Amino acid sequence: MEVILIKYGDLYLKKDNRNFFIKTLKENIENKLNGLSFEIKNDLSRMFIYTDNTDEVIDRLKEVFGIYEIVKVKELDKDEELISNEVIEFLKDKDYKTFKIETKRSDKSYPITSMEFNKLVATKILKTYSDLKVDIHNPDIKIEIEIRNNSAYLYLDKYEGLKGYPVRTLGKGLLMLSGGIDSPVAGYLAIKKGIKLNYIYFESLPHTSLEARNKVIELAKILEKYNDHGKLYVVNFTKIQEAIYKNLKPDYLITIMRRMMYRIAESIAKKNKFLTIINGESVGQVASQTLTSIRAVNDVTNYPIIRPLACFDKEEIITISKRIGAYETSILPYEDCCTVFVPKHPVINPNLSIIYEEESKYDFEPLLNEAIESVDIIKLNEVNNNNNLEEYL
């Protein structure tokens, strides 16, 4: 079996809560590696995965938050001669001109210090490969050795992890997921902070299409690569949106529509004990995302709202969207309920007094209750990978 070493990064700083974070990370890794043959051993500073499916394991680990670095290692006895020979064999046929040895000795009872071990190994390399030179500042290759209590480890290939915190360590949240570019990226960043996501989508059939719902399901499935069995709450928003359109001031349509969405999202969040609502708003990006508009919408709830993209530029958001594989789905041309009934001149500095006056013109409470009671819930882990979504439509 080959050995993969996991470095925790920020989890190491959690002190009294460290065990909880590492235990959750281990559970998340076990879930991600389901179906493969592996064994996990861990302590408070390192995790080791023993497997015959090294490449597949590494690929899956790249989708797990809470990992700082993934390292393919060679596990060896703590014998200086054996380790030196392994390093010499590793360098065979490699096209390097300079190298550096870096030893970490966590086993302080080991009789050779880190600096002494560096010199011993480097000396044997120089005797074997006369064309190689030591460069401690800018080497072509850095050979890392870690001497721990039970074994020594020679670092081979290294891969950057997603960092962040393990999913579920910071509780559950509800992402307002539209079919656009921004909200999936906001969801990804929330997952990175350890929040287990569930999703809420507002649709207005027949003004929006079933293809639009398909699109949102696909975006949620993309996020589920990093998440932990989230659910999608599909809200029938048609009657509410039509009532706003027919009875209230056109320029306030978007603001009041979003206020209604937050009322519904808060109700679902409270019912399911989600600790926060998350959205993809970026300050100033559109009329409904000015600070005045955000304040006017927030007025309907005192629930915690997280806006991970608040200070991001659009290009920064697109870069992340492409990296997580959501961009091509996000730009599919299917309108959601935020893009239908859009007024020509939406208000950018809404006045709360006018909002209260407008909302008093129509009794929205029965429609809100009906929308909440008729929510469709989709368990995303039960949606297969063959895009067979008819049963959910």
SSE blueprint and pairings:
Elements: E1 2-7, H1 18-32, E2 38-42, E3 46-51, H2 54-61, E4 67-76, H3 80-91, E5 98-105, H4 114-128, E6 133-134, E7 141-147, E8 152-163, E9 172-176, H5 182-192, E10 196-203, H6 210-224, E11 231-236, H7 238-247, H8 253-271, E12 276-278, H9 291-298, E13 305-306, H10 314-323, H11 327-330, H12 352-359, H13 365-373, E14 376-379
Parallel strand pairs: 5-6, 5-7, 9-10, 9-12, 10-11, 12-13
Antiparallel strand pairs: 1-3, 1-4, 2-3, 4-8, 7-8, 11-14
Spatial extent as radius of gyration: 27 Å
Instruction: Please name the CATH topology of the largest domain.
Output: Rossmann fold
Rounded to the nearest angstrom, the distance between the terminal CA atoms is 46 Å
What series of H and E elements makes up the topology? EHEEHEHEHEEEEHEHEHHEHEHHHHE
Q: Helix share of residues? A: 25-40%
Strand order of the largest sheet: 2-3-1-4-8-7-5-6
Mean pLDDT: 92
CATH top level label of the largest domain:
Alpha Beta
Protein architecture, described:
This protein is α/β, with parallel strands linked by helices. It has two domains: 162 residues, 2-Layer Sandwich (VC0802-like), CATH 3.30.2130; 221 residues, HUPs (Rossmann fold, 3-Layer(aba) Sandwich). The chain has 13 helices and 14 strands. The strands form two sheets. The chain has an eight-stranded mixed sheet with strand order 2-3-1-4-8-7-5-6. A six-stranded mixed sheet has the order 13-12-9-10-11-14, with helices on both faces. The two termini are 46 Å apart. About 1% of the residues have low confidence.
